């Protein structure tokens, strides 16, 4: 179990990382969908699990905030030493944030593209929104 100081430090780090300092005193009912996603991401970061699942985490965010968070999330898995599964329908997000892109088709892996193999083949283009 975490002591209070360590837990508070993790919370501060997560709040800073996902830019939610202005929301920390607000009721969750006052937040937009995009803001709630950022709060949920911060909560997941505080737990420091070995696997982090980010399912459409950038959906409904303003373009400038999305760009900032994508840049920060690029370093996140390595800095925390956590494996991250980032789910998105947008190729640009997938290519910015990851070092390996799995493309799914009908519930199965259709393509596995690593940094060394980029740009992705046409399978990815067929499946992703731009």
Question: Would you kindly provide a written description of the structure presented here, covering whatever features stand out?
Answer:
There is one protein chain. With 130 residues, this protein is an alpha+beta fold. It starts with a helix and ends with a helix. It is built from five helices and four strands, in the order H-H-E-H-E-H-E-E-H. It has helices at 4-17, 33-47, 63-80, 91-97, 122-127, and strands at residues 51-55, 83-87, 100-105, 108-114. The longest helix has 18 residues, at 63-80. The strands form two sheets. Strands 1-2 form a two-stranded parallel ribbon. 15% of the residues are buried. The chain has one domain: P-loop containing nucleotide triphosphate hydrolases (Rossmann fold), CATH 3.40.50.300.
Kindly report how far apart the N and C termini lie: 43 Å
What's the overall geometry?
globular
Biggest sheet character: 2 strands, parallel
CATH architecture term: 3-Layer(aba) Sandwich
Q: Into which percent range does the helicity of residues fall?
A: 40-55%
> What is the CATH topology?
Rossmann fold
The stretches of 5 or more residues where confidence is low (pLDDT under 50) are 120-125
CATH superfamily: P-loop containing nucleotide triphosphate hydrolases
Q: Provide the structure class.
A: alpha+beta
Domain module tally: 1
Radius of gyration: 16 Å
Would you list the SSEs in sequence order as H and E? HHEHEHEEH
Count helical runs: 5
Sheet-strand content, in percent, reads: 15-25%
**Which sequence of strands runs across the widest sheet?**
1-2
């Amino acid at each position: 179990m975490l002591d209070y100081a360590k837990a508070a430090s993790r919370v501060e780090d997560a709040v800073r990382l996902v830019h939610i300092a202005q929301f920390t005193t607000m009721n969750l009912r006052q937040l937009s969908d995009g803001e709630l996603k950022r709060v949920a991401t911060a909560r997941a970061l505080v737990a420091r699990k070995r696997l982090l699942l980010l399912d459409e985490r950038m959906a409904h965010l303003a373009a400038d905030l999305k760009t900032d968070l994508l840049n920060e999330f690029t370093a996140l898995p390595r800095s925390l030493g956590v494996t991250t599964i980032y789910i998105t329908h947008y190729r640009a997000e997938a290519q910015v944030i990851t070092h390996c892109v799995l493309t799914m088709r009908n519930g199965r892996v259709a393509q596995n593209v690593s940094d060394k193999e980029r740009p992705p083949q046409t399978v990815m283009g067929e499946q992703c929104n731009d």
